[in-house]
Amino acid sequence: VWNNCLAFIQDNIQPQAFKTWFEPIKPVKLSENSLSIQVPSKFFYEWLEEHYVKLLKVSLTKELGENAKLIYIIKMENTYGNKEPFTERIPSSNRSQQVAPQELEVAIKSKNPELKNPFVIPGIRNIKIESQLNPNYSFDNFLEGDSNRLARSAGMAVANKPGGTSFNPLLVFGGVGLGKTHLAHAIGVDIKDKYPERTVLYISAEKFTQQYIESVKKNTRNDFIHFYQLIDVLIIDDVQFLSGKSGTQDVFFHIFNHLHQNGKQVILTSDKAPVDMQDIEQRLLSRFKWGLSAELQTPDYETRVSILKNKLFRDGVEIPDDIVDHVARNIKTNIRELEGAIISLIAQSSFNKKEVTLELAQQVVEKFVKNTKREVSIDYIQKVVSDYFEMDVATLQSKTRKRHIVQARQLAMFFAKKFTKASLASIGSQIGKRDHATVLHACKTVDNLAETDKQFKKYIDDLSKKFS
Ligand code: ADP
Ligand code: MG
């Protein structure tokens, strides 16, 4: 049957096109009036549907009659080392209007009204994809300055044509409090505005990791991957969080490839440029470099003043220029702190019914500059350690004797001893209700392993950086 179809098609199109688009197709199965064919990729399938659907229909109808059906089977590229390549069956959209779970992708392509907002994924669970965007973070209130011009305008270009620029992925990097999250949201908000039908998702790398861990636990890893492959614009904030998390990196690599191949936009933020990222797999780093990496630098004085003035203006508060100037001159490296100082200044003045004086401003600024170091808590330590090992806190605290979990637990105890003032007994009771002897033993074990086990030493060094 297929050969007859091919003969017909060959007669009707250019030889080159035939070679490119029809020779690679493998007929797989014929049952009654439906023929299954295997195509090499989703892109391939989409191309066929877009350009040759009529031809296919005519040729197939000639062979199988009016009720002929064509089923595409897409052979997925096996990108992340799974043993068995998995295939996905997609019935031809022009023949079937019913939406079954596996037909999802096609339904979206054919703009099935049932699948428009609210966006529901059938077959997986009923999840609405809410974009998780914060409408308060817009381009309008992301003030432009030399420090952010490149990143801001690249962001705007991406928002105008998501997936349609060479900035894919767009990676925005820079230090704490310089506007990465704000800009990432602004791009998403603008896209939602211009292209309301596209699915946009903002998610922190941390939350992404948690979802992934959860999916492994619940045996729904494939659903997890599938879910992310449906998104048109994926924004992942703080990808440095994926450092050392090979499971999550693996799954992200797979999702990234899929989205990229299908012309979907990926936007990433990170605290470092790709070249400086540590413990991120090479293949992912090289993907990060495909598009554009744009840095958010520390804002210069003029930008700091305009950010402050804009903030005051939006809040309807007036403050004398010399005070704004004082704040802008003294808080230089972090826009969040800059805003924090001015908010606290306003709050204090209204609280004490005092006028905002330069003296008050000096006090507030001084406190801000001093107060940047925060105390670590045992909860925080447990969270960081379990994140680092891609497990959840409950697992870390559990009674299991599995080696890697025991080690994670011992490390948490060790850091709690080192970085908090808590007693051994109190540490023990907070980390899964253990006694002080267990904590003491843990600290000794960690000390010993630090000297004898290189890999373990690296864990300690990596984690120490997160607490000091
Ligand atoms: P990061 O994610 O890089 O740590 P954020 O995006 O959270 O930083 O920004 C910190 C604060 O500074 C936010 O309140 C944000 O609105 C503000 N901010 C950052 N850059 C700008 C800018 N160019 N104009 C106005 N506000 C900004
Ligand atoms: Mg941020």
UniProtKB/TrEMBL annotation:
CDD domains linked: AAA, Bac_DnaA_C
Residues of the Chromosomal replication initiator DnaA C-terminal domain: 377-446
Binding site for ATP: G177, G179, K180, T181
Family matches, as InterPro entries: AAA+_ATPase (IPR003593), Chromosome_initiator_DnaA (IPR001957), Chromosome_initiator_DnaA-like (IPR020591), Chromosome_initiator_DnaA_CS (IPR018312), DnaA_C (IPR013159), DnaA_dom (IPR013317), DnaA_N_dom (IPR024633), DnaA_N_sf (IPR038454)
Function: Plays an essential role in the initiation and regulation of chromosomal replication. ATP-DnaA binds to the origin of replication (oriC) to initiate formation of the DNA replication initiation complex once per cell cycle. Binds the DnaA box (a 9 base pair repeat at the origin) and separates the double-stranded (ds)DNA. Forms a right-handed helical filament on oriC DNA; dsDNA binds to the exterior of the filament while single-stranded (ss)DNA is stabiized in the filament's interior.
Family assignment from sequence similarity: Belongs to the DnaA family.
Subunit structure, as described in the record: Oligomerizes as a right-handed, spiral filament on DNA at oriC.
Protein name: Chromosomal replication initiator protein DnaA
Organism of origin: Cerina litoralis
